What we know:
This protein is of the alpha+beta class and 184 residues long. 22% of the residues lie in helices and 28% in strands. Helix 1 crosses helix 2.
Amino acid sequence: MAINLKAKETLIQVGELKGKYRYVLGTELYNKLSESKVIKEAALRSGVSRGVMQACWDAAGEVIKAWTTEGHSVAIPGLGTMRFGVRAKSVETVNEVASGLITARRVIFTPNVEIKQELMDTAIQITCYDRNGKVIKNVTSGDKGDVEDPDNNPGGGEGKKPGGGEDNNPGGGEDNNPGGDIGL
């Protein structure tokens, strides 16, 4: 198994590299697995009927939705935790605080140690495309999964987002940067 990425030669539209072509990495997306396929596979792996698995799936989804909307961080078995959060502008005085400061509502997922290790142990395959969409190179990782991990990098990489931008809150929690996060 490997994580498949694409590196496409893309014209940069903003910033100091505006007007230059650069190779931009992104995840190759295949298709969304249907809920019924996931239920069927989970039923096979657990030895319970599809109907029972569907009822459990629905109940778990309702519990997660209810508890996250109440402000809890909820465990997702075998994966990590999920919670809701927001991005918001900062203001100088308490009189300026209002819900209009919110720039985005987010779902925040924090993977557990095992899933992070699985990710580190998974090979990477990159297909490189030129600006016309022609495949020009394929790269397969031969590394030991020792790509920098900003969550576990004492003294190094603090204050930098994975995309190279500044993090306005390197200590954690919500930040004041309405730019894009890299999704999981």
